[in-house]
Amino acid sequence: xSENEEQIVLRIDDLxxxxxxxxxxxxxxxxxxxxxxxxxxxxxxxxxxLLCPACDREPAAAELVALxxxxxxxxxxxxxxxxxxxxxxxxxxxxxxxxxAMLDDQExxxxxxxx
Length: 115
Ligand SMILES: [Zn+2]
Known about the structure:
115 residues; alpha+beta; three-stranded antiparallel beta sheet; 2 helices; 3 strands; elongated; binds zinc ion
């Protein structure tokens, strides 16, 4: 791990609609995301993820959705649980998006006849 503390910014008000089902999202997370470009250089970026109760079915997301179903607002008594679930969910989103990026890359190479 680097010495940079990971910063995840959460928003629960004024959320955009879910881009997948156009339903109401529960939570928006902004998190730093760095990757290597095709010259092998580190690129720092910021990603956003929406938590949608209809679309997000992976275990980490489902646990978060369940927490929202119980507590309308997150209060200090469950903030630790909430923080842990958010971190797990962001981690799963990060992996999902990385996988999608890889798939896109492979598809492009396939179209170009590189595979
Ligand atoms: Zn959705």
